[in-house]
Amino acid sequence: ALENFPLLMYILAAKTLILCLAFAGVKMYQSKKIEEKLKKEREEKLKTQVKKDD
After folding, report:
1. What DSSP letter does each residue of 1-54 carry, written as one string?
2. Domain residue spans of the chain
3. Residues 9-31: pLDDT tens digits?
4. Where are the membrane-spanning stretches (predicted)?
């Protein structure tokens, strides 16, 4: 079984890398969506403030 050891380590490393990339991708996607939401809310607040000033 020792001759398969490097292959097993390679597969394990690949799995870990894929999981990390997937996790990072999800995090980036979520943060982008949250940023857009915050931006929209901020713009809405600015619009209401401008209306109040008039």
Report:
1. -GGGHHHHHHHHHHHHHHHHHHHHHHHHHHHHHHHHHHHHHHHHHHHHHHHHH-
2. 2-53
3. 999 999 999 999 999 999 999 99
4. 6-29
